[in-house]
Design brief:
homodimer, mainly alpha, Arc Repressor Mutant, subunit A, Tetracycline Repressor, domain 2, 2 domains, flat, DNA-binding
DNA sequence: ACCTGAACACCGTTCAAGT
DNA sequence: ACCTGAACACCGTTCAAGT
């Protein structure tokens, strides 16, 4: 991974690649320009010749990760295309550890470089028979849904000793009175480490495949139904 | 807002309140323990008597914001309860500028203090006739959907001069060829600043009410349908 | 054009010391 | 118990200078 001194010149691509490595190793919180420079055997300030500041570097990293997301097969049904889009997005985040925090918040600002995503979503909605007057809110619904689950599944969990966090959650679970919250107590055992708010591992260590599939189904079904409704009452 | 020196003692509550003020003013990126100490006329290290580090402070801030989210009226239909939950969540984020980045990623780790949210969601799902064997994935679907749209709507946009960003987006929009992306070009005008990826203002400056309502409808409809399906094929 | 090198104004956090 | 104060090991970023 390490650039041989005085052989390869720097480039945006090399910097981004090394930045992704560092984020994967240590997380986005502790990621620093100085570290990426160190790894590339150069000076922190050299990075500034390629990126005007840390934020734009992070933005281009997000773009890089997003580059594989939009499906380019056009022989798909609209709902298969959307399902594949959602899965591609999840895979992209999954294959770049600790990247989730960045994407959910910054995609909206930086993925514009690729019109294929926007055009693909709109085309899918039109094929689904969405009335043109409702394309914009529906488009927003799709983008938000694409990011929502994945941002949480792979999002930041406290990285202090995982065992400590597990203990804290289990202890909290014990304290819940079954007379006060009978429904919660009934499902608590099977929710431990499999449900949001009750997990001590995130999606990288303990994937939520079944939940994600359910989520996608709910979304696609809701989209169909809602478009049906919209066509009934113009 | 400023604590009078040597009159009020410090407390968790006071620190959290001032931290929320600072985040609202300057954003979560530049929020620092040293700044909140300065505002409270005390030393940075005094904060560490109340919070073991910056991350736990941020966690408790997130908890504070979440404290108003779970509806406590129990005379609601399950879908009205869920709709209200979604709206409460959006309102909470909306009323605490720049807090969105924090919540989406950290709620999952810190909201556990309040079993009412978990119990409420499970109870709503049971009332909706969700089969017990599918409660966990459905619960995850609900939580992810609650956070998804709002995290993006109020999420971080580049804070460099907004005008500059607008210009950049408009320029990019001009370049899109209508022969290559006819559907996108058709809707582009109405999408500018109203759609994810094509906005230069976030939800605080330009709310996405219509899209959010559509999103909630899609989700609730999808939930109904999916539960129907699950009950057909056990 | 591309990188070096020093410098500035910040950080979070630890630790010892005060009251 | 609660706060002061100094110190440490970091940051991002600017600017002038080198090649």
């Amino acid at each position: 991974m390490k650039r041989k001194a005085n052989t390869t010149p720097l480039s945006k691509e090399i910097i981004i690649e090394e930045a992704l490595n560092l984020i994967a190793e240590k997380g986005v919180d502790t990621f620093s320009i100085r570290d990426v420079a160190k790894r590339l055997d150069t000076y922190p300030t050299a990075i500034y010749w390629y990126f005007k500041n840390k934020n734009t570097l992070l933005g281009e990293i997000a773009n890089k990760v997003m580059s594989s997301v939009t499906p380019n097969c056009s022989n798909l049904d609209w709902h298969d295309w959307l399902t594949l889009l959602f899965q591609n997005y999840r895979d992209a985040v999954k294959h770049h550890p600790h990247i989730a925090d960045l994407i959910g918040g910054r995609l909206l600002a930086n993925a514009y470089q690729d019109p294929r995503l926007l055009d693909g979503v709109i085309t899918a909605l039109l094929e689904a028979n969405c009335p043109p007057s409702h394309i914009v809110p529906m488009y927003n619904t799709v983008i938000a849904s694409m990011c929502g689950f994945v941002t949480m599944e792979f999002g930041h969990l406290p990285k202090e000793n995982a065992g400590e966090w597990e203990a804290k959650l289990r202890e909290g679970a014990e304290k819940i009175e079954s007379c006060e919250y009978p429904n919660l107590v009934r499902f608590l055992p099977q929710m431990m480490n499999t449900s949001f708010i009750l997990r001590w591992q995130n999606g990288y260590d303990s994937p939520m495949d079944e939940s994600f599939n359910r989520y996608v189904d709910v979304f696609i079904e809701g989209l169909k139904r809602q478009i049906n409704e919209l066509n009934k009452t113009p």
